[in-house]
Amino acid sequence: MVSGCLDLLQGHPGVDDTLVLALGGPPAQDVLGGHAGGEAGYWPRVWAARGLLHAWDDRATAAIIQATTDDAWRLREMAAKVIARHRIGDALTAVADLRNDRVPRVRAAAERAIVILTASGT
Question: pLDDT tens-digit profile of 38-62?
Answer without folding.
Answer: 888 999 999 999 999 999 999 999 9
